[in-house]
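Consider the following input, taken from an annotated entry for SusD/RagB family nutrient-binding outer membrane lipoprotein (Larkinella rosea).
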Amino acid sequence: MKRLLIAVISLIAFAACTDSFVDINQNPNQISDELLKQDFNLVGSPFSNMIFNLNGHQVEEDLCADNWMGYMGTPTDFVGNVNNTTYYIRWNSFWGREYGSIMSPAKQVIKLAADNKLPLFATWAKLIRVLAMSKLTAIHGPIIYSQYGTTANSILYDKESDLYPMFFKQLDSIQTDFAANKAYTGFKKFDPSAYGGDLTKWSKVVNSLRLRLAIRLSKVDPAQAKTQGEKALSDPAGLITTNADNFINALNGNKIPVAQICYEWDDTRMGALMESFLIGLNDGRLSKYFAPITNAALYADHPSVPYKGVRNGAYIKAKADHVPFSKVNESFQTVQTRRNFTAAEVAFLKAEAGLRGWAGAGDPKTNYEEGIKLSFADWGAGGVDAYLVDKTSKPINYVDPVDARNNFTAVSTVTVAWNESDSNELKLEKIITQKYLNTFTNTLEAWVDYRRTGYPKIPVAAKNDSNADWGVIPAGESIKRMPFVNAERTGNTAAVTDAVSKMGTGAKDDIATRLWWDTGKVANF
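Applying the prediction step yields:
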């Protein structure tokens, strides 16, 4: 817990430092503006840090969506085993990360780019903002976007139904700028991704992001979703369709968080849902994601497969009980990059778009199988051909050898092989389940899909500590959103009240209020 508190304090300090980014760059004891203007340093240097902060760390990911979606489980009884993982909010810091480390420096970049006649850097900064804020709104709902940077005493939030048209309009402008400057090389030295500043590849991110957001709206606003999805599918710049084009960014010399939390702090382990799906489906990615264990008593329920996970929202009596469970694969110890958008995800997006009848999406079966193949190749897993034709393997029940209160019977009976005679609902369950299994280490999108579609079918948290403090999650249901941060509740109170009113009749700033695109409708077609 001490390490967790240190991480939170460091993040706050880090965000505060970023807020004064321009002042730091103008410090005469460091480097002058004139030197920074050389080779576009003044506008280019912030991008590495902005892109780094598109993702979070322990309190933003591991103790939130990583756990809620069962990718990882904590062996640690944080705050007496009453915390985010059991639906009682203790930590809520992604908001500060995105505003302090992305929105604030992006605003400065856009101004500096205008002052120095470097408009493409402003375009790039706008894309990073959309990438970041499309994540943040998926966590909280209404956010401060169009009014960001105003000096009003109360800064109003944009409601979700207004945010997405803004995102799409900005993606239009961004794509136009990139398309007109394909040969531009000014980003090269500042790009922390594998793209090396190549605008033709960044253009594929634009289209892929548009498709992701269009699919997100497919139930709440099918007309807008179809229009935007088809625009993404037909744009000549194309989508991320090969692993060579995956949007993977450097972590500025840092180890990928899941490895640090697992190996250095012993605060996270393989999730029980991963055990249920990956072992049950005979999935070759199991050994690429996680490390085997040696104590056979811990995996006696499947003695030939030496892995064991921790239940989402588990009952934890003592940290030592679950620390012997499976860590992430040892190879993650040397990983200093993050997957932000993969070709496999795009293939699954296209598969769902095809089910929904969107022009240009292609055949759902072809895209579904291509997504699995791309995922296996991306993670270096074998056996994909046998996996694709497996009609019988299903997720297994979970047994916690330490505490039976964490046991569960598999909720899903999904298999892998595609069957054209299946209903669209079952086909969608297959697509989303495989999309879920692919997005290990990028779990927010899985939480979005789960709230939006009900897939993958997974058990809710074993221990439900929700109450009136942060909102009550009824038995058998799961967390719907994160509340607005306390700094906004106390310092921007009127705007928070207005934001809640924009979430619909009866909405509250709690964890039980659904976001706009989370319609609550069981049927997806």
